[in-house]
Amino acid sequence: MIGVDNLTDLRLDPIGVPPYSARNINQTLEPIDGAAQLARTVNGELIDLSDGQTFRKYKSTISCTDQQMPALSGVWPGMTLTVDCVAELSYLTGSGAPEREIAGTTSDPATRVEGSFTFYRPRLTMKVVGYSTNFTEWDADIAWRLDLEEV
């Protein structure tokens, strides 16, 4: 749930999230391109040749259309941000555990349990890969997109 004082649970440190810039936000979380290096053996069996520890990282795209510009002045590709995600990860409560630190900068809990599963919003240290903004004057719509990859 979004806190009364917050219009979004998204946190971007150190740049912040201005009011009315991130309502109804959309965030993807997916493995980085190097997370799997799949190949077939001479017998046709599919195997994973990737380093199971090093390349288990996420990339993310955060996008939104709202009334205000995001705080992207001075943000350039390569800048490191701490991201308290709005997208959730989940695990089987009885036998699992969070694979990443849990977001914790909002007044609302960043975890919830439904049935046998625990859902949580991760906190990720990410680098800016790129971003874009778009302003439609007569509609007064600000559209933006921020592309990130975990450090």
Describe this structure in words.
By secondary structure, the protein is mainly β. The protein has one domain (11-150). It is 0% helix and 43% strand. The strands form three sheets. A six-stranded antiparallel β-sheet has the order 1-6-10-11-5-2, with no helix packed on it. Strands 7-9-8 form a three-stranded antiparallel β-sheet, with no helix packed on it. Strands 3-4 form a two-stranded antiparallel ribbon. A hairpin with a 4-residue loop joins β10 and β11 (141-150).
Question: What are the defining features of this structure?
Answer:
151 residues; mainly beta; 3-stranded antiparallel beta sheet; 0% helix
Question: Nutshell version of this structure?
Answer:
By secondary structure, this protein is mainly beta. The protein has strands at residues 11-13, 26-31, 38-40, 46-48, 58-66, 80-84, 89-92, 111-114, 117-120, 123-136, 141-150. It has one domain.
Spell out the blueprint of helices and strands.
Blueprint: E1 11-13, E2 26-31, E3 38-40, E4 46-48, E5 58-66, E6 80-84, E7 89-92, E8 111-114, E9 117-120, E10 123-136, E11 141-150
Antiparallel strand pairs: 1-6, 2-5, 3-4, 5-11, 6-10, 7-9, 8-9, 10-11
